[in-house]
Write a structure and sequence with these properties.
CATH class of the largest domain: Alpha Beta
Number of domains: 3
CATH architecture of the largest domain: Alpha-Beta Horseshoe
Strand order of the largest sheet: 6-9-10-11-12-13
CATH topology of the largest domain: pyruvate-formate lyase- activating enzyme
Largest sheet: 6 strands, parallel
Helix content: 25-40%
Distance between the termini: 37 Å
Number of helices: 14
Strand content: 15-25%
Amino acid sequence: RYAFVSLGCPKNLVDSERMLGMLQLDGYELVPDPEGADFAVVNTCGFIERARDESFAAIDEMLELKRRGDLRGVIVSGCLAERQKEELLAQRPGIDHLVGVFGRDEVTKVADRLVGGLSEQRSVFHPAPSHPLPDRARLRITPKHFAFLKISEGCDRLCTFCAIPKMRGKHATKPIEEVVAETRELVADGVRELVIVAQDTTYYGKDLYGEPRLVELLRELEQVDGLDWIRLMYLYPMYFTDELIETIASSKRILPYLDMPLQHINDRMLRRMQRQVDRESTLKLLEKLRGSIDDLVLRTTLITGFPGETDEQFEELLEFVAEQRFERLGAFTYSLEPDTPAAKLPDHLPEEVKEERRRRIMEVQQEVAFEFNEAQHGRRLDVILDSPAPDQPAEAEADGVAAWIGRSYADAPDVDGVVYVTGVGLTAGDIVPCEIVASHDYDLIGAACDAPRLR
């Protein structure tokens, strides 16, 4: 019997699901409460300080249960284990085993020895492989009808603020045939929406095939029977070819929703971040995307308060947000990460300046997002239902009719708003035609206006 805590990004969630699947195949029983379990696995995130703090808190909670005698052992895995193994072992001696990012597939061996009381070195780490680890036979944490699909591992970008390459190595492409096989397995398990993730999605295939092959991969995935939606995340603004844009624009399964982290728009900031793109090329790409893909929803993320960011450079970023009117946007204050080039840059800004700039960005974006939602009133959208609504805005209340939480093509899981749907005879995983009747802050209110679409 074991408990599992999964933290961090969707890529790490895929790792968690793979470990859960292996433990299940080995006969271990997953329980919701760690108290009384034989061991707990904490799959950590080590990306930024806030994520590390969350990981440390989860580890300490498990160690406290162990100290009280309510839990026999603690296994710590993932990016924090990879990044700070020496500190973890020294500062938290109660940890029984550390499993690095690429020691993931040995979690059952570690669990067997822990439960069996056998002595073993306390850490399992491997160098980043040239070929990604397989992600099949997962025990999924997500609802049955959608899944994250990791198409590559690691990153070659070397952005100055980012420690991902230190934790997950260089970019390694999962072969097309493996991705397709995994997709078929997921669809057979009930998946209707596939959320494609990587550190750098547009770079897919460059290391393995000598050139980016995202277009070829997407064309293969479009042929998988039973798959309704393909959602693209983490698209770096390079290698966005006309062929890729046309493939997205003409597809009936690839959603007109693109997640493209830009981080900044000022050329000097982009050079300091080592982003390998500039303002002019970014603006041209955005214009081309808007002009080529009908009903396009663009999501981006931005960093405020990067070292050396002047008032003028921030105002340029703020004006960019107001002009581009991204339908979805997240802004984050710069987080100083040890052992990254940006940590050594001069002119670091006070936290209050970084936060004030983030607040101003999100203030502008809130107005954009609310206006976008208001423009959806009266529109007919397909909505995939995730779960019954435990509570809902007053606008979604209907006499005796249950409300569901769902998402339209414009809403990625966990990061965007939702659509509250009223209707009868509905179930999780249904894709339901809805008329949008109202909006509430970042969310929409819809009424089912037709029967759910068949697979």
